[in-house]
């Protein structure tokens, strides 16, 4: 009988011991029967052996490093090809963490306790009845600004006292120069200046179409009172349903498709709703102030003033809207009571559903956010004409509601849970202890495990580590060439993060980036240059390690697209220069077999004699067909003379599909295909840390893409550089020779090594038997090293093998038979 065996010396990370796999059983009569082996990558998952150097004078565990097991590694270099960016948080890290606040609330902390924790040195204060002036940045430099109302509730006035009170459905002011405006109004029509900004597409469209014409169609349907779903340019079932409803309402043939009959009727309807404007006044001094008779705090979100946006949509705002010529150019301002203002801020900063968390405990996160947002908004004085703005540069403010067009349905921004949190904390702010001065209560979406400090004392924040928080910790991969190009460097080999001793901030929040040419950049500048979630990060250089490692191909599905679909994708960046040639072929929805352009089809195009092929497939296959499809793909690759195939397991997170069965098929295939190596992405990403790496249990977040690419790159480097030998049949009486001297930092011949200690495991024998382990330079001993008595057993044993320098051939190898 024969046995499956595998031998491998695994490269360790710093401070880890080396792992060697020596797994074998014997023959039918003396050594036992068929045995299989499992080959594992990391120390904590290994079933294999630790080599310990026994010198003549001392015992040592000095085994860190890399090494060739069978063949020498290809030549490499130390050039930095990329940086793994490991960071924490989303935002600046100062003050309240929104995710941390939610975690604290779920843990039973009150909103007052949450605020005390994040804003050390401050206490509660009161600013009841205050107002906010918010600069609405989307209309910067606008030539005219219009508002719409429900009924005839809109009014206007100019700074020179010219005005008409209320009574208008629509109003707009046109800039004529030098802070002077002409005002137009309509008492009969609801519309925006320049028409309704509604385009009737005059092309045939049906389900499955996409693009700008579909966007126009969706906007038109919403304007006419139908419901096409999201205005996203994708003609799906909801849009088809809206077209059908339009056809029914207009006595057209119901097909769900958009054609000439539909667009002809739509043009008639849009023409019927064009706004008729009347000039109301000229030479009106700014700011022009638009108001409404609808009650600021109690009116429905869609009944307050609707402000026309540049794209034709409407955003409703409580309070008044002002249009003015300022020192910064033309600006539009919302003057509103702070409690009404917060109703458009808090739901944009913290998800309203948090209020339901923990049986209602999550409301304390919303209450804490309301106080922080109130204090922050009132403490700002960004411009003479407005204290704050409506973007994340200040704090996000979305108004009360939105519409796709002036007459379409209302989509509230406000939420009842948020409204209640605002009422529960009405007027409450944070002030500096002993002064009653308002505090600029900065906050971030996430601060990681510890806040940045600065104005407020740094605090540990384990509550920030909440399920669903994608940025408690995060990972990115940045091409070293991008960094070199951005800062005019010859190379990025000497780019590092370092602690700025003069920084007022704590931990990684005090890091700066040293460019290696005597210059440095702030972490903020680096963060903005490379679109990172936060300035709290460290750079980990990834060096090429080896080059000229033969030819390589990658076959993948949508997960593969996310890591290798473009030249700038993380895996391709990480493998720059490693192989003599590389082929990447990934497509969304690709199965292993059973369709066109499937994995087998791609395998048939892999260049003959390719040294290494990585296969990332299985998500789009029925588990019951996986075995046959793997066999077909592997046979195709074998027929093309491929050297080795690394197959990646799939994540088993998605419960709706039996991906465990898929993985079982992948793992079992390695027993049939000697050139196949299985690497376990499921196991590598199955813990809680991996939760942040997935968007839906299969597809990867930005951090997941980086983590998967780095993990896969490590495997590819190891397989290439360690001379991995896949499991193979070993005939009865054959001997496995395992080099141990001069490998991976172990001293060579003459280095004083007296012996090696091995964990040797017989796996899955087909009957009873034993195996022996000895120094290949001497005769095979009579005594056994591992005994096994039953088929299918897994029998490990610690074996000490003396080495006999100077004896026989002095091979420096251990034999297993």
Give a brief outline of the structure.
The protein is an alpha+beta fold and 817 residues long.
What topology does this entry show?
Elements: E1 3-10, E2 19-23, E3 49-50, E4 53-55, E5 59-60, E6 80-88, E7 96-97, H1 98-106, H2 111-118, E8 122-126, E9 131-135, E10 144-148, E11 154-157, E12 163-168, E13 170-177, E14 180-186, H3 212-223, H4 237-249, H5 260-272, E15 278-285, E16 288-292, E17 305-308, E18 314-317, E19 320-326, E20 329-337, H6 338-349, H7 363-379, E21 388-389, E22 401-403, E23 410-412, H8 416-424, E24 428-432, E25 443-444, E26 473-479, H9 480-487, E27 496-499, E28 511-514, E29 520-522, H10 523-529, E30 537-543, E31 551-556, H11 558-564, H12 570-574, E32 581-586, H13 599-603, E33 612-616, H14 626-639, E34 644-648, H15 659-672, E35 676-679, H16 681-685, H17 702-721, E36 725-730, E37 736-739, E38 753-763, E39 769-771, E40 773-775, E41 786-788, E42 794-802, E43 813-816
Parallel strand pairs: 7-25, 9-21, 31-32, 31-33, 33-34, 34-35
Antiparallel strand pairs: 1-2, 1-36, 2-3, 4-5, 4-38, 6-26, 6-30, 8-24, 9-20, 10-13, 10-17, 11-12, 11-16, 13-14, 14-15, 16-19, 17-18, 18-22, 19-20, 22-23, 27-28, 28-29, 37-43, 38-42, 39-41, 40-43
